[in-house]
Amino acid sequence: MASLLGEQLFEISRQGPPPPKDFFQLVNTKNEVILRSWRISLQLNCRGAPPKELRTSHLEFLHHKVLQQQIGTVFGQRILEYTISLCQGKFDYLERLPDNLMLCIMSYLKLKETTLLAQVSHRFRKLCNSEKFWEHTVRNRCAGFTSDMEGIANAMGWRKTFFTFFNTKQTTVKKEDG
């Protein structure tokens, strides 16, 4: 599983809270947390100022309450908690799987379960609503799908095809409960 981890575990960028217009970037690598900030100002003495960069090891970050507070203020409590969990070695391997492998795993879920999965994260919502997911669903789960319908599905979208032709009260989905 460790091979799924690249050098960079997480990255996010955002404009800080007002009144300043400063811009921030948070990078969490295997070994350290890096917070970069760019001063955005109309004042002449701030123009051309280089970005500030603070690098700290995971262990140091876990004890650096001021830095944690700054990250919580800029990026929110959820991002702070995720950064802390990464520093503690708690990796979310499922989130790191490639899309094609996730789609393969999702093919074993019931459609009701995929609606729940879509609520877990932005990535899962994107995958559950992707054309690839719906194409696989129509091709492999819908009785009555023929190769003649492929052109229609490509033109109008696989998700729309599913809900237009196959999602009826008399279920035509192959062994959904299986």
Automatic annotation (TrEMBL):
InterPro entries referenced in this protein's UniProt entry, alphabetically: F-box-like_dom_sf, F-box_dom
Domain of life per record: Eukaryota
Pfam families: F-box-like
Name of this protein: F-box protein 36a
UniProt domain F-box: residue ranges: 91-137
Gene3D superfamilies the UniProt entry points to: 1.20.1280.50
Residues making up the signal peptide according to the UniProt record: none
